[in-house]
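Lab notebook, bench 4. The sequencing result for the construct came back, and we need a structural model before the next group meeting so we can plan mutations. Quick request posted to the team channel:

Model the 3D structure of this chain.
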Amino acid sequence: MQHFARPPVVLVAPLNWGLGHATRCIPLIYGLQALGCEVLTASDGASRSLLVEEFPLLTHLSSPHTPIRYSSSKWLFGWAMLKLMPRFWWQIKKEQKWIVAIASKYHIDAIVADNRYGLAHPTIPSVIITHQLGVRTGYGRYTDSMMQKLIYRYIDRFKQVWVPDVKEEPSLAGALSHPLTLPKVPVQYMGVLNRLSKGQPAAATTGQQVLVLLSGPEPQRTLLEKIILEQAASFTGQLILVRGLPATRTDAVVQNSTEQQKGTNQALAQLYGVSRVRIFDHLNAGELQALLPSVEYIICRSGYTTLMEMIPLHKKLVLIATPGQPEQTYLAAYADSQHYAPQFLQEKFSMVHALSTASHYPYRFPSHFNEGPGPSVLAKWVEQIKETQKGSQ
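Done. Here's the predicted structure in token form:
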């Protein structure tokens, strides 16, 4: 009797800290499916909602999580993070216990963890996705080095590290993804991960249409939203605001959210004119893709996934780092130094001034960002998993 090997079961588990970790896993999930894998996801909150919307037919597990909320003051960010350290440690411990039980229950053959340091399985091939190898704490080089050593202790428990950036310079994340000291385990550069189409970048249509993409933990997401809406009256172009709030669980909640959104749009239309301001809680990849050709400028956080998605599409960004978040502060400064996009401070942000500056900015879009992730890393890894399956039968 002939026996057919079952498809490898791969768990993809992004961190729920903003939407970026989940969105950059989307092209990987499609890639794994194309290579014949059965994919499960594990996340929570908005990240889980995003993956459920994108992949409604997959099995979506709820994983251990630690709710993150920033301080409203950038000066207290470091203290807030220090207070969260015991919770991060406990989160890793919970993940380590959870992954052993889940792997056995669902017969998982491999794990892809996006910034989930506790999901390295002792016997199952596990990889971690991160662009944060060169840690930035905001407290100087000594503290950066100590934190890097601590993080590498957990990274070295995985079999590989996948870095979502190009290997050659100029890179997208600079010293964050190309540190002087690498982990002990093999490091693979995946190229730029992008859930959006890789077609030729489309030029914006005539007329100044500005898209605002909000994201990230509270309360800073809401604070920036208020700043943008307060300044909408002095903006003469067309404004589209995407709040970065995927709909949550029940139909009643979704319906209520839709009604609230309609009411908000009606109120904005009365204030600014129907054609001038539109607001959405969330746009999926297809909706965002359809909107981009009509957009001239995008105001957004300097989150890494936003940079990965928009810069290869030759979109003109206006970057506002989350106050007090050292990684975004570095990425905004690095992007500005490379002429990928100009940066502005949230507390002094003026939409009119920022767009005026952007209109004269020497935007630069390196061609090798458009190449996307090479299939070799993913294909070789899946082939190794299949060989391991054969050996265990």
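The first helix runs from residue 20 to 34.
Will bring this to the meeting.
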